[in-house]
Amino acid sequence: MTTTASDATLTALRQTNRLLTRMEQLLEQQYQYLLARDMVSLEQESSRLSGLIEELEIDASQRNQLLTSQGLTTDMAGMNQWIAGLPAEVQDDARELWTTIRKQMVRCREMNLMNGRLQGRLRSATARLVELFWGNSVARAGYNQGGQLERASHPRNIDRA
Description:
Elements: H1 3-36, H2 39-69, H3 76-84, H4 88-134, E1 142-143, E2 149-150
Antiparallel strand pairs: 1-2
């Protein structure tokens, strides 16, 4: 394993760490926007999150290429081999960095699931409000032959909801 390739891989891991730190921050901010029902800010944050996901995909691809160029597999075993092949003075730092990255990935996945659950509850609450407003389930709505929306009953006034 060449020192240059090892240095590049270590630099790539540091970049991954920075990107995942930013991902954690964005997911936390997304959660706060969901709680506040701030859909404008949520949409902007989601756009930033999409860009960050693209960066992480490129980062992972580059890291995989670096590992492959060193004759290693692009999985956990390859990373462990890479760390074991480093000079002793940087092995502990590399191992700690890789452990941190793995923990960050778990936290990001958990935060994303939490945001998804909250978003689902908000969607459900919104559907219930629409149902109260219209007086029937949107699922029971249909279209007639003229393409007009038909409902099973007439909409309720908001004061009766």
